[in-house]
Design goal:
Blueprint lengths: L10 H13 L10 H15 L3 H14 L2 H14 L5 H20 L1
Helix pairs in contact: 1-2, 1-3, 2-3, 3-4, 4-5
């Protein structure tokens, strides 16, 4: 069960923990549990009902897991929902994912 019930209702904690598991350079690739990080991020999205920050975190983890197409789709949703003062940053990340997807399709 997800964290044995700990933080199960704390979307921010779930999102932050998932992001840390997926991207923390102190976690070796052998110990990195991307499926668990995705599970945490997905739970955060479910709790927040389309919160752009939770969606952006999920997109980041999808990207780090190699699912670039899903990352593009999820980040696009986050970009559409985020307040205008953050649009530029979310768009920059979206472009990064789109460029990676394009490079992958060329190979």
């Amino acid at each position: 069960e997800l964290l044995n019930g700990h933080f199960i209702d704390d979307a921010g904690a779930l999102s932050d923990l998932g992001q840390s598991i997926a991207t923390n350079p102190d976690i070796s690739d052998e110990l990195r549990d991307i499926p668990f990080a995705l599970e945490l991020a997905e739970a955060s999205v479910e709790l927040t009902d389309r919160d752009p920050r939770a969606l952006a975190t999920l997109a980041s983890i999808q990207f780090h897991s190699g699912d670039v197409a899903a990352a593009v789709s999820t980040q696009r949703k986050a970009w559409k929902l985020v307040k205008s003062k953050h649009k530029q940053e979310y768009r920059r990340v979206l472009r990064t994912y789109q460029e990676a997807a394009q490079r992958a399709s060329i190979r």
